[in-house]
Each structure stands twice: as C-alpha cells, then as structure tokens.
Amino acid sequence: MKLMKNYETLKTKILAGGGRHFVQLYGAGAGVAEYQTCRYVSALERFKSFSGLHSPQFFSAPGRTEIGGNHTDHNNGMVLAGAVNIDNIAVAAANGSGTVRIESFGYPSFEVSLHELQPVEAEKNTPASLVRGIASRLQELGFGTGGFDAVIDGCVPKGSGLSSSASFEVLVGTIFNHLFNNGTVMPVCIAQTGQYAENVYFGKPCGLMDQVACTCGGFVAIDFADTANPAIRKIAFDLSKSNFSLVITNTGGSHENLTPEYASVFAEMKSVAGFMGAKTLRGASLEKTLEALPEMRNATGDRAILRAIHFYNENTRVAKQVAALERNDFNTFLELVTESGYSSYMLNQNVYTTNSRHEQSVALGLAISELLLKGRGAWRVHGGGFAGTIQAFVPENMSAEYIRSMEHIFGAKACNKLLIREKGAIRVDLS
Fold first, then answer.
1. Which of 77, 137, 355, 356 has the smallest CB count inside 10 Å?
2. pLDDT in tens, 294-318
C-alpha cells in the first residue's frame, strides 16, 4: 500500500500545474507540456513494472548542437556549442546492490556489475561499456557509486548530429552524482568521465565538446588550449527572444566508411602543424604558415594547407561569435555562422566525400538553404560533415516554409526545430 501511494504521489506531481515543471526544459510551444507530461508518466509506470523501488527520482540530459568551431577541437581550438530541448530522461532509484539495471524504451535491457570495473572487450560499442567506464572513473576520482535501477526514455535520435551518446553518458553520470554523491560532482567532471568512458571503454575517440555542452546547458564557449583543463564559459544569450528558430536537418547519406574522411581532417591539419614545428595548429599561426607555403606544398599537399587555413580562421571566428552574442548583435552572429559554413565547404572540404560524387546530400541541403535564407538567416554544415546534418538559423515567420521545403527533399521528419536549453544535465524538480 505504501509503495502504491508513493507512485501515485509522484504521478500527481507530474500532472500538477499543467506541465509547468517542463517549460524551462522544453519550452512553451503548443502541445509540449501535454507531450512531456505523458512521457514522464509513461516512464514512471514502466519503472514501477520494471523495478518497483521506493522513491524514484527523475533525471534529464539534453542533446547538443555545435554552433561554431567546426573541426577545431582536435587541434586545441575553440568551439561554441549549445544544449537543446531534446533530451534523454531517466527514472532511477538506488537498489542497494552493486549492479546497475537499465531498461530503455526501444532497446534491450542490460545489467552492469560494479564489482568488476575493468574494460570488458565484449562490451565495446555498447551502452553497458559506458556505464562501467563512468563508474570506474568516478571511483578513481574518489566519488561514490552504487547499483541503481533506471528506465530511460531517449528522445535524442541516433545519427541526428545532436549527440545522443554524450547525452546518455552525462545522464548516467548525473544519476550517480545525485544518488550517491549528493550532487557534489561538478558538471565538467561529469563531462570528463563520459569522455573517458567513451574513449577507453566504448572504444571511440572523441573530444570533450559534446559532453560539456550537455552537462552545462545554454550557450557554452570552450577553449581546448589545455585539453586536460579546458576553459569553459557560459554565454548569456536567450535565442528565444531573437525571433529566429534553430533548425537541424538530417539530409541523409550513409555514415559508413567515413572514418578515414574524419581522420584525414585531423591528420592533414596536424601535418601542417608538424611542418611548422608544433604539435597542433593551435601552436602555429596563419602568418607563419603562409610564409612557408612554397616549401610546405610538396610536404603536406594543398588540401592540408586549405584545412589549416580553415582552422586558423574558424578559431578566430568562434571568439567573434561569442563577442557578438554577448553584445546582443545577432545579425553579426548570423553572418559569422554563414562564414563558418562557407569555410567548412571550401577550405575544410567536409561537405561531401571525394569518392562518391553522386551522393552530395549535405551540399544539396546547403544549396537549398542558401536559396531560401540568403540575406535573411544563416546555414552551415553541422558536426563532422561528409554526410548527415546541416544547421540553419531561420526567421520565425518563415520557419514553416523552410521546414516544408527541406522535408519535401529529405523526407518527413527530417527537420528538428529546436530551442537552446539553459539547463544542462539535472535532477528534475517536480515540486
């Protein structure tokens, strides 16, 4: 009877106030409160069936969008990113054991024993490896861990360019933080444990931008000059007051066999840095690079030099974007977003692959965006590039037209109209 009352109390809290708990996380658009209320109630009901533990808590971790700094972080550059109002949520409670039990909507359930925290080869590329890696790193840093039951409802689509993996990682870290550490683990530390788990346990090299954006929320500028201790700065700017929408469009295209393309950007930029006697391009300069061009061309190739020029200009551009947002100069910010897109296209050359001239979905999306938005908005490749998503800032009064045009080409639900979410990864307060 007490258990039933506990769940009914939580359900009443979710339903109370017409969804006011959710406005700061998801915005106040039509139908948003109703959708999120149903979503949270559904997750609670599933947790009740799956676990039945007393007093579960709700957690949320947003996805993220890269706004500036395309392919700069791996050479100790600067980036501008933002948390978005699409998230992964969890209903979770400590289970008093040394085992984490997770059930997710649409995915197989799994368990991870925390009695053995060394990497498990068979777990690579699975969510279980991330849970084990996060727990291991938290323990190494002196934080508490323990078994918990969780039901996860993930609304950050895989392959959307909104970083579903980082959102999952920081969600798990946030659960450990609140269930076993009274919320004392700092957001940057949670981000770093997620990156560690993805690098060492999951088996995927990645930077820290995604996890930092998901944990911190809002607009966030990150300077990776010192990768062990990146400088992180939140930017006070409310996109919702700009009368522009942020639209991410999935243009399709296969991500298979793109690893060599991504690796070539990193390797070619570093080859220019090496020619200049530096470890990364952050330790070199555009001026010195231009002076060395006659000798460098044979050593590195022309594309490497073009990509280096992109890095130097993009790194400077991020600082200009931050300054524009801080002085509320949104028109200059939009111009810089579009400049970033042109630079990625012409210099960094990560809009389509060199071995598939027939498949240029990202380039097509950018071309149509330019036709629709030139002089009115901004558009650029989003994330790694070569296939996948593009980003656009669209005047609110033409967002419906833009989305209709893009989905006519790339299919229904290809577009996500997003808000920048001020809250990062949190325990959701239902009071």
1. 355
2. 999 999 999 999 999 999 999 999 9
